[in-house]
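Sample intake sheet
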Amino acid sequence: MLISVLYLASRLLGLVRDRLLVTHFGVGATLDAYTAAFRIPDLLFTLLISGAFAVAFIPVFTEHWEKEGHGDAWRITSSLLNLLVLATVVVGGVAFILADPLTTVVAPGFDPERHRITVELTRIMLITPVIFAVASVLGSVQQAFNRFVFFAVAGALYNLGIIAGILWLAPHLGIYGVAWGVVAGVIIQVLVEWGGLYGLGFQYRPILGLHLSGTRQVLKLMLPRSLDQGLDQLNYIVETMIGSTLQQGSVAALNFANNLKNVPLVLIASSITTAVFPQLSASANRGDRAKLVEVYVQNARLILFLALPSAVFAVVMRGYIVRLLYASGNADTANALGWFAGTIVFSSLFMLVSRVYYAMKDTRTPFTLSLISIPTNIALSFILSRWFGVAGLAAGASFVAAAETVALMVLLRRRYGHFGEASIWQGGWRMLLSSVIMGITVYLLIKQYLPLYALDKGFMTLAPKFGVILAVGVIAYLLPSYLLKISEAKDFTDRLRRAVLRSTNLT
């Protein structure tokens, strides 16, 4: 809950950031260039660090902390910190030099002016992977100790840096001011992460430590996961490449829809899997299969209970959501958000199932499935975008996410026996039924009483209507969930009732 609340703050600031970007620059050529400029720095960061570091580092760090002593664990931490910084500096320097031809690959459909802006923005933002490398190591150490506050707060402050760039630097430097705001946000993030180490006794050492078994083990475990996440970035690059050949503003529209889709994905999947991964790792290290399955099933059901209604709500309310958050409606963004709904469910589950594999120190299986999915995603993106434009790119992503997640769950059962699938399915179909009832209720409410008119613009006009629809949607989901005896619904309503009673001094 703590992580979810802090992630919510970060995502709300992210939506404010996007709204300011649309207000200042519009969904057009400038934001196309800004969005495309993230692709090379993000790919570099993903391949070298990203989530790959945490899932490889935490089990190894925990094991060495308990068995080999604190000094050995800190030596491993220092060596990995130094190695990752060195790698990002070297690779980032090469990317800086080759930014021009790399941009041609990433966005082949850009005109010369958008190409030039993208190259310059890319070179500014190539500073960020080096700083992100430090932040990732520091944040992973805190997660190993079940410290999540500084780790989660840092993400929110990252968005504050970008917002500051939009408000204070962009009036003088244009879109380049926003890029420098990105750099400032990353610097703020790493400073906060450093503060989170207070009291842990971390001792930095200027060593590379390739001779340390723990260092080699983390690097070995990181490789498949890094390549796996690199494939995700490759998908984004392919989508950017195809989007650059569509009408102007398509790259930005897809990015904004992706950001909206990521709000429930982060609040639900990221917060839950971040909190539960140390438990999964500890159970796997002890060989306690029963506990591992119990934790997995409990959180899979919780993810479905939250993700299914979120996905249905995103489909039905896509027009309202885009109009409310981005000031004016954009059909491409709204339609892409509707087709992205499938990824809210399946990518959330994938994040949990993959962490079961990581807890058992198997990073190869998720990577292999992602590798197989690449040609499918490229083919679908190309074909569907020709038929449906930006929405086709989102539809392809949802289809691939579903296939990849189902395959990973099937392999889990085949290799390790039953993993509580019956309990997950038993709750899942009832949650889906409740979500459909909620979706129909919300659709009828909009159609009959609260339609979205062309002149409905501005937060004060849309927020009250949106609030009413959201409240009705929550009730329309919880009521059938409760009647269908979904345990998560009963837990939710019981906790809500106790919170209300406490707030009114009745208990």
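Comment: The chain has a mean pLDDT of 86. The chain is about 85% helix and 0% strand.
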